[in-house]
Amino acid sequence: MRRTLLPLLTLLICAIAPLSAQGTDIVIKVGRLVDGKGGVAHNTTISVANGKIVGVGSRKGAATYDLSRYTVLPGLIDVHDHVGWHFNKDDRFHTSADGETPADEALAAAGNAYVTLLAGWTTIASPGSNADAGLRDAITRGVIPGPRLLTSLDPLSNDRLSPDSIRSIIRRRKAAGADFIKIFASASIRDGGKQTWSDEQLAAGCGEAKSLGLHSMIHAHSVEAMRAATLAGCSQIEHGVFATQDVLDLMAQRGTWFDPQCGLVFHNYLDNRAKYDGIGNYNAVGFASMEKALPMAANVVRLASKTKGLKLAFGTDAVAGAHGHNSDDLTCRVREGGQNAMDVIRSATSLNAESLGLGSSIGTIAPGFEADIIAVDGDPTKDITALSRVVFVMKGGRVYKNP
Predict the structure, then answer these.
(1) Average pLDDT, the chain
(2) pTM passes above 0.85
């Protein structure tokens, strides 16, 4: 029975989206426009043709979509989302040992992608899994609905690799279709977060990625790992729970992107403890470490947002249980991390697009950009929780949610 349902479920997902195909002449009436660059306009229109924004400004005539009651923004971007992570049929965190089929895994990932899209996230980066490639390509072809997806494929984590081996693996990732490179330079926060890759290994990995035109995303918690990754010329550092002002200043000087998580990932693990407990380092020590990390993570956001010249990206590290709740970390950044709401919005739109090398095509509402457009109930520049009340979602000119 279970196998016979899989094709039907796939057809169901395809049938419910999109609500409309790409239009050749779509006009959206806007009450409040937040453009992703820090600009705000009122009582305006957005014109869309063939999946692109072709005009922003007053346009007379009937509107295809009347969003005059809402705030309209660019589609949100999450640069760290583990879209394939899910809970299995026993409501436990899925691992390779639980007997799921590839079809089970694919359907779970597709479901995560769909709820993420409906929550207003039109682009995500997954660091990563080889299975992401099939999902990315299916979304691109329009086979299933989901955010535009970039993936590192499998990350590099083996701290025994020689520099030459690291370079060879990265070349293979590029050939296999990786959109960027993910490297673990430190242990998990559940294992203390100490540096695991040497300075030489990081230089080899990030140098090779750069030579191939690939962005390098580095998992690093300790100050030592963050400093080593920065000096190695790596593109972006994730997490950084133990960051200090000195290392943040160094990152700003070197132009290194920083993506600290504020609280969603830790709260999600703690709220779903029974579904993770006993698997790998999800144990008493690990959960205690995550509880301890909560105030530290918010404080790092506070430090980072006040560091002059630091390029601040936005990624949630969404794992099983967190998909579709990505905006909770935006709220955390404002309420607990003290970051300015407009700066948070810019991080999740135009700045994230820039960090991914897509700054000229997504993350901004302006002529020539992809028609990735969402609407929320409320004004997120004054109440950041409005970003959790998404009522309209358009990606590439296709509407997936409409009030």
Answers:
(1) 94
(2) yes
